[in-house]
Known about the structure:
By secondary structure, the chain is α/β, with parallel strands linked by helices. It contains eight helices and seven strands; from the N terminus they run H-E-E-H-E-E-H-H-H-E-H-E-H-E-H.
Amino acid sequence: MPETPGSPIQPNLTTKLKFIDKHNMHLRLCMKRVFTIVLFVFGLASQAIAVEVLVKANAREDYLRSLDKDGNPITENYTFLKGNYYPYEYENPEDEIRFEEVAHALKQELVAKNYRMSTDPKGADFILVVHWGQTNSNPDVENAANTDADSRDLFNPMAELDAYEADKQARENARIIGATALYDLHVYSIKRQQLEEATRHDRYFVSVLALSVDEIRNRTDKKVMPKPLWTLQLSLPTGRAEPNEAFGTLAKIAGSYSGENLFNADFIREKEKRSIVRVGKLEFIETIEATSELEKE
Length: 297
């Protein structure tokens, strides 16, 4: 029997089609929400894995590298000089990160900027002085100062002394990790708060100073060292990585910012962690006085 326009069959079909469309729309909406949640969770996981490295890089205005025909910096050779090691206050001797390990990690990463370690220290273009270790936040003093500050006493000499020691330690840490500019920032600025937090918590750090061998040779006052060609200060929180991972990651960042000039210390988010390799003998000079042989040439 042919279907007529007023028959009940057509409305039922239309109703079913509307139901299917509504169901598909609801399904798409659910899938979109699930996808959003997955992205959010993945983002949180990525943030948990990533670590923020505080980077301060400075280069002299007259430090300009020549380029080859392909636009890449011409190779410059260096040799290492062992600087100061800053151990953690409660560090076990077996946990010490040796200079050779840090230097070897830096050597591998500096190749990216065409900095190569000289096979003969006497033929190096510059000397890389490397300081490394861990800052000490002295949490006992910090906590004592905060606790006493909340007391009802108008003046507590011990609280004042603890606060002074905590501030002194924080300022020393700021110098080590390159965050002294925080004291020039507005007291309520977010950047200042971030840098202050970095100075009051334990951090692994590496500091590199590049000194020109020619300038060391030709200095008129042998007691005064020339101004570094460039400096680099890197640090990250101790709670986010094991020591070997921390120093490997800092070396990786050094491969990107050595010889560069950043106006201010900044936090760089690094997702890929590196580990340093336990190495044996590495050729480097022990003291600046060792360059006296260079001066005689």
